[in-house]
Amino acid sequence: MIRNHNKEQGFTLVELAVVVVIIGVLAAFAVPKFLTSVERSKAAEAFQYLSTIQTAQERYHARQGTYADSVPKLDIELPKLEYFETTGIDESDPTTLQTAWSMTLTRKGASAGFGAYTVVFNQDGFDGDSSTITDNPEINPMKTDDGSE
Questions:
Q1: What is the reported pLDDT for 145?
Q2: CA distance readout (Å), 135 to 2, 46, 129, 131
Q3: How confident is the model at residue 76, as a pLDDT?
Q4: Would you call 98 helix, strand, or coil by DSSP?
Q5: What is the 3-state secondary structure (H, E, C) of 66-94?
Q6: Beta partners for 107?
Q7: For residues 66 and 90, what is the distance between their CA atoms, to the nearest angstrom?
Q8: What does the pLDDT look like over 137-146, one tens digit per residue?
Q9: Bridge partners of 102?
């Protein structure tokens, strides 16, 4: 009995098209979730940075009786911000530094469609009322599972 081994083997065009469609559908769901996850981790940079500033400000206030009006006066060495920019500690009214301070970080560069959102901290911690990241709860690291901040 002689068998024909010359029969071509492989995938048909229809089979390949089905696989491409399946991959496309999976990517349509996965890519936005991935980009949101990446942006959330980048937003965490701002929260970590400002939390460090807040802790240092409390130490400075305990020693000096007022909050520092610039970051170099604090007893910390901060990493260079990669995804955010800041104008520093808000010192528009130096008399308020005895009881309050504020610092804003603004997202720079591409942000997966979330725009140039801001993260604001003050003497009480995260200032959700002044921060525009609250408009994007899916990337806000301060958002809890129950939806509160």
A1: 46
A2: 72, 16, 10, 8
A3: 93
A4: helix
A5: CCCCCHHHCCCCCCCCCCEEEEEECCCCH
A6: 84
A7: 14
A8: 999 987 644 4
A9: 122
For residues 99 and 42, what is the distance between their CA atoms, to the nearest angstrom? 30
| 123 touches 57 (CB < 8 A) | yes
User: Would you state the structure tokens that stand for residue 103, as one six-digit string?
Assistant: 């610092």
Output the six-digit token pair for 125: 């911690």
User: Is residue 147 within 8 Å of 129, Cβ to Cβ?
Assistant: no
pLDDT(121) > 70: yes
pLDDT digit string, tens, across residues 68-91: 999 999 999 998 999 999 989 987
Name the H helices within the chain.
Answer: 13-64
In angstroms, the CA 137 to CA 91 distance is: 29
Q: Mean pLDDT, to the nearest integer, of 9-38?
A: 89
Return the amino acid letter for 40: R
pLDDT of residue 30: 85
Is residue 113 within 8 Å of 37, Cβ to Cβ?
Answer: no
3-state DSSP assignment of residue 57: helix
List Cα–Cα distances, 68 to 50, 96, 114, 123, in angstroms: 14, 11, 32, 11
* DSSP type of residue 79: P
- Side chain identity, residue 74: L
